[in-house]
Write a structure and sequence with these properties.
Layout: H1 2-39, H2 47-60, H3 65-89, H4 96-134, H5 137-143, H6 148-186, H7 193-203, H8 206-232, H9 240-268
């Protein structure tokens, strides 16, 4: 009898976990879909809403440009230079384009950019909204007839998605240009710029473009939705604020990996 009770308890634990994750997944999908629906309604975009969106893009995108460029230069020096050096020594310099496209453009660029956005903006969004919830500012907006979802969630989610896409493009450009500059310096100018960039551009295919767009926009939307959801889910205790921020980052990172895997399967399998 005890064994049967224990087995049922274990199955119940698994079932409750599955149901909880399914509930979070459906809630995330609903938030993202609602944001997209609000986006295509011009009357929704009032001046205060546009102001919140602009500030979110400024913080998430513009202010992170320098840090993204620094990481991109390092990645260019590590990945691009190594690929060029070893492929040239092996007599396979024609493979530099496909390899860099597969490593940097398809995977590394969007992944690292999303990590930076999650670490900077994901934490900030969850903490900001959690503090607003704890201090009663969300209830005050509702009492004034302002929809908290439209004013707080929509511009932040869109701002994160727009910024992630732009930062990904900047990351890729700086990575390839910085990598070429390192190669040029190492080889003392004995490298063909047209051949280098021609191999990279020639290796880009339609699935690569689809993958780049999807991996730079979809995780950004989901990161914004997750962190907004976690921030607004707190109660009245200030101790819940750091918990919400941590949970938002963890869920965003897990979602990033799962989303990237699914997009890669759809694009290249």
């Amino acid at each position: 009898m005890g064994y049967a009770d224990g087995r049922m308890s274990f199955l119940g634990y698994i079932g409750s976990g599955v149901l909880a994750r399914w509930s979070r997944l459906t809630r995330l999908a609903a938030i993202t879909w609602a944001v997209l629906l609000r986006t295509v309604r011009p009357r929704t975009w009032t001046a205060p809403l546009r102001n919140v969106l602009a500030r979110q893009v400024l913080f998430t995108g513009f202010e992170a440009t320098g840090f993204i460029a620094l990481i991109a230069v390092i990645v260019g020096a590590l990945v691009v230079v190594q690929a060029q050096y070893w492929l040239t020594r092996l007599g396979q310099s024609n493979l530099i384009g496909p390899i860099l496209t597969a490593v940097v453009l398809r995977e590394l660029g969007p992944l690292l950019t999303n990590f930076v956005v999650i670490a900077r903006s994901g934490t900030a969004i969850a903490t900001e909204l959690a503090n607003m919830k704890v201090h009663g500012e969300v209830r005050a907006l509702d009492a004034m007839g302002i929809d908290p979802f439209v004013y707080l969630v929509v511009p932040r989610v869109l701002g994160v998605a727009i910024s992630t896409f732009c930062l990904t493009i900047i990351f890729l450009a700086v990575t390839f240009i910085g990598g070429f500059a390192c190669i040029w310096a190492i080889e003392l100018g004995d490298v063909n710029m047209g051949l280098f960039f021609g191999n990279i551009i020639g290796a880009v295919t339609v699935p690569d473009v689809f993958s780049l767009l999807a991996k730079s926009i979809v995780p950004g939307l989901l990161t914004g939705a997750i962190c907004c959801d976690e921030g607004l889910a707190v109660g009245v205790a200030a101790t819940e604020v750091p918990i919400a921020a941590t949970r938002g980052v963890i869920r965003s990172v897990a979602t990033l990996f799962v989303t990237s895997l699914l997009i890669s399967i759809m694009a290249f399998v």
